[in-house]
Amino acid sequence: MSIVIQNGRVIDPASQTDRVADVLIVDGRIAGVAPNLSSPGAERFDATGMIVAPGFIDLHVHLREPGFEHAETIESGSRAAAAGGFTSVCCMPNTKPVNDSVTVTSYIVERARRNAIVNVFPIGAITKGSAGVELSAIGGMKEAGAVAISDDGLPVMNARVMRRAMEFARSYDLPIIQHCEDLNLSAGGDMHEGAASVRWGLRGIPSAAEDVMVARDLLLAQLTGARYHVAHISTRNSVAMVDYARRRGLPVSCEATPHHFALSDGEMAAYDSNYKMKPPLRSAGDREAVTEGLVAGTVSAIATDHAPHPGSEKMQEFELCPFGIIGLETALALALEHLVHARKLSLMRLVELFTTGPESVMRLGRGTLATGAPGDVTIFATDVAWKYDVNQSFSRSRNSPFDGRTFRGGPVATVVAGELVWRRDKA
Ligand SMILES: [Zn+2]
Questions:
Q1: What pLDDT, on the 0 to 100 scale, is given for residue 270?
Q2: Distance, CA 114 to ligand 1 centroid (Å)?
Q3: pLDDT tens sequence across 230-248
Q4: What pLDDT is stored for residue 86 in this prediction?
Q5: Residue 187 burial (C-beta neighbours within 10 Å; 0-12, 13-18, 19+)
Q6: What pLDDT score does 93 carry?
Q7: Cα separation of 361 and 266, whole Å?
Q8: For position 123, what pLDDT does the model report?
Q9: Which of 62, 128, 176, 246 has a Cα-to-Cα distance from 256 of 20 to 30 A?
Q10: 305 assigned to active site
């Protein structure tokens, strides 16, 4: 079993490689990266004119299984991931039941082994039922395959519980991922608190709802030494605080979603629930700060926060709609458009944000084309025009604000353990 990806421009941040070469994968592992590799009997993929990168890692997705299979399943979510160029995804525990036990973690691992076409890594809950009170079975979940802990969807509001959780995370050497939102400050809010929310008469969520929790948690991270990660960072102050903590040498990191660097509250379509998510689309200044964080290295990873909701739930009044949008299939194209084509990031740095960056947070043993590494490869184009039609999505849900957009560049093919699991139909 072998495949050779020929003649592409290989960009591998782990080795700072940027040159035209072949990538050979044998028995599911990288066997070599060099020009004109001889590979008798191997399947061939012509990547001339394309970028060949280590398989992309999305460290923040919601696959909705078990419990919400009408919105997404591990199988459908994995297909959307593959079509987005992702070879590995980490799934948040806010399923039904919540992934706060060995039983649920093992169930996800087993379902993924049977049904997923990409690698799926479960994230265990910090607290039982993500209720924020009692710590879950962290050690057992780690043994069963959990790669991090988080109560995402909800924050851990109680600082004492968060401190204890960080101590456990540290002793199990797991990253602890926080959805930073002070629920008392955000209560009742549907969008960012600013000019647009006032204009539309909608209740706002102030940036401070995120900032106060980031500040508190960074102090707790200093106290405990935990590997602390801020999910979907969205404000100027939060980016500045994470930068400060990293400069002080704390093992803290953060991720940014494509929607938070591609859109601000001023670009929302009024009362359109496809623009409703948490944290909300922020001000133009916040969006700029998130972009600056991606450029400067304060932000370690681009993560989608892929959050499927079926049409029936998103087709209600704005205030009643759930928060979240799908994002796996548009992430790379949005990053190319807003970061690379906009001349803010090099291609090398872009690939880093999808590979070595998330790998540094999650430590999955991936994100590199080094010989012997898992044979996961993302092949993408930077200039081919294509149109995103959400009705063609592999996701079971359709909640995207980017439907109908024409993009320049995006995923072309996805290889997982040496197997071509997805390729774009020729136009
Ligand atoms: Zn969240």
A1: 85
A2: 27
A3: 999 999 999 999 999 999 9
A4: 99
A5: exposed
A6: 98
A7: 32
A8: 98
A9: 128
A10: yes
pLDDT under 50: residue ranges of the chain: none
How far is residue 43's CA from residue 251's CA, in Å, rounded to a whole number?
42
37 Cα–ligand 1 center, Å: 44
Query: What is the reported pLDDT for 426?
Result: 67
For residue 1, the model assigns a pLDDT of: 87
Residue 138: per-residue pLDDT:
98
Contact indicator for 78, 410 with CB cutoff of 8 Å: no
Q: Find out whether 160 and 217 touch, Cβ atoms under 8 Å.
A: no
For residues 124-152, one letter each, b for 16 or more C-beta atoms within 10 angstroms of the residue's C-beta and e for the rest, the string is: bbbbebbebeebbbbeebbebbbbbbbbb
String of DSSP letters for 32-69: EEETT---TT-EEEE-TTSEEEEPEEEEEE---TTT-T
Q: Is 271 helix (H, G, I), strand (E, B) or coil?
A: coil
What's the CA-to-centroid distance between 307 and ligand 1, angstroms?
A: 9
From the CA of 118, how far away is ligand 1's center (Å)? 22
* Active-site option among 151, 152, 217, 305: 305
- Please write the tens of the pLDDT for every residue from 21-70: 999 999 999 999 999 998 899 999 999 999 999 999 999 999 999 999 99
Q: b or e along 60-87 (b: 16 or more beta carbons within 10 Å of the residue's beta carbon)?
A: bbbbbbbebbebbbbbbbbbbbbbbbbb
252 has which bridge partners?
228
Other C-beta atoms lying within 10 Å of the C-beta of residue 316: 11
Ligand 1 ion: residues within 5 Å (CB) = 152, 179, 231
The whole-angstrom separation of Cα 395 and Cα 399 is 10
Q: How far is the CA of 166 from the centre of ligand 1 (A)?
A: 18
